[in-house]
Amino acid sequence: MKKLITIVFLMVCSSYAKAQDLIPTRSVFLELGGAGLPYSFNYDFRFDKTKMDSWGMRVGVGGYATENESFFSLPVMVNKLYGKGPHYFEMGFGLTFFAFDENRYNYSYCADGFFDSNGNYICNRVVNEQNKYEFILPVDGSPSVMGTMNFGYRRVPVDGGFTWRLNLTPIFNNNGFWPLFAGVGFGYAF
Fold it and tell me: pLDDT by residue (tens digit) across 85-103?
């Protein structure tokens, strides 16, 4: 009888431990807009693996390359969830490191010239200008960093699975503050 009670007790404890492991404290998601700027692929996790409504962190990577330009972003944020599954309010802050091909933003043009007797244009003064890159806010050069904040809704099913989020993501740097940037994300919680 003692063996049977011990076995039942161990089974209950192991099922309780497994239930604790099933809390979806990690997720992978694609975010359009948000901290990754144009878009990013992200991994989010809770520091306390036994609670969803706790502090966590997210790390992502985004970017693109075309024939004429390239862009790379790396968002890193700390966040806190408030609420009960599956509905959470999310609040966070962090930095987005990014780099871009700044060569395409330098250009020169003829500011003053004339046509000679043969019909050839002669330039008297060439102006070289550097057009500053902007992603909503002016950026001083590449690589650069932007501060980010996050306020929004996150839906995480209690057993894991499809998750989504909608966030207001204010961004800022030494050239200003833009409070109305936003992001939407879709992914998988586990």
Answer: 899 999 999 999 999 886 5
